[in-house]
Known about the structure:
It is found in: Cytoplasm. By secondary structure, the chain is an alpha/beta fold.
Amino acid sequence: MNRKKLEGLIAAPFTPMQSDGSLNLAIIPAYYEMLKANGVKGAFICGSTGEGVSLSLNEKKAVAEAWAAVAKEDADFIVMPLLGGTCLTDCKELALHAQQIGLDAISFTAPFYFKPASVDMLAKACSEVASVVPDMPFYYYHIPVLTGVGFSMIDLLKAVDGLIPNFAGIKYTHEDFMDFLSCMNFQNGKYDMLWGRDENMLPALALGTKASVGSTFNYAAPLYYQLIDAFNHGDLKAANALQQQSIDMITLLGKYGGIATGKAYMKLLGIDCGEFRLPVKNMSAEQFEAFKKDTEQIGFAEFSSRLQPAVNV
């Protein structure tokens, strides 16, 4: 396969929910326009941020169809769904569905209940899913903090090289820079390595990464493009300061309960994605007011994404 490597920021969108916990897909056109207005290059849907593990098979299809509809005429915006990992039958059905509705690539993570006993078993699982759509780029999603599957990704690349023709690369959400660099250099940079830790973007840039997938790109893409620009111009002092702003913003995620805090940031932008489903804890109304004050202290409004003006990147 002749594949073009991805570049720029790819957001991991939240799945919008109604107050009763059902899908609110009517928001997605405005969501897409907001991402485009802030220079985001694609959407990694139904991932961790998108609550993929909390969605039914039919709901994942509905979310994918909504994103396919808004991006179908946009060749510069890629849409990639996370298929899942635990049930390979569902993953294969979702892969075929992604192909049928015209999505650009697919992603798969490690089975995390019955975990693969070796990297070769993980490679076989990847192969089984990737083989049903041999013309679609396949990305493995490495996030051992959630899956509990922590094989070195350089070993996975060695296992899949030649085994899976449409294996395009890895979404790397981990902090092992030695492993990440080894993957980037494997087979003369054959595979697309997508960085997945927003709070560690600066060191990943130093290793040469060109594309990142992250949740905070939903609401703070301008901050990261400033960081990238500062790094590219050799202004490490400014890049350092911008990365610290990112860290300060991400620290509030932990302070207010974790991943669901991202939807609170979206609410501040004017895109209300509702709440996370159980068992994720959402903040109370009182906590949201305290959260707003904290965002003022870190100057969130100064670097957050905008709903209207386009950003040239």
